[in-house]
């Protein structure tokens, strides 16, 4: 298979996989994404969250408002710029994010067990390593 055709098939397949795994989510994907960014990257202002998500500031601000109302994030004055707020993941937010991740991993793990034999699971594991390298190349991380 030509690399460009492989790239398109990989993009389509991974997109479908992500959408299928998200079907078990119990919160809106934008809110889950914000919790994930705060968990991985630490406290961030809304503008940075909007940029990371690839959405407008207004869209990110609505998600932040909803998350704040649910006690999943808290805002504090930014130490370098008092006009900005720095958003922190609360313990409740961390717990909620972990529940979402556990649901996703459980659904995906069950599908892996039901679909593949031991040799295919080994192949899939090796493929994850390759996909991680590809992601690192694309993201520069």
Describe, in plain words, how this protein is organized in 3D:
This is MarR family transcriptional regulator. It holds the Pfam family MarR_2. InterPro entries: HTH-type_Bedaq_tolerance (IPR052526), HTH_MarR-typ (IPR000835), WH-like_DNA-bd_sf (IPR036388), WH_DNA-bd_sf (IPR036390). The structure is a single chain. The protein has a single domain (about 5-140), classed as Arc Repressor Mutant, subunit A (Orthogonal Bundle). It has a two-stranded antiparallel sheet. It is globular. By secondary structure, the chain is mainly alpha-helical. A hairpin with a 7-residue loop joins strand 1 (about 75) and strand 2 (about 85-90). The longest helix is centred in the C-terminal third of the chain and has 25 residues, at about 90-115. The protein has 6 helices and 2 strands.
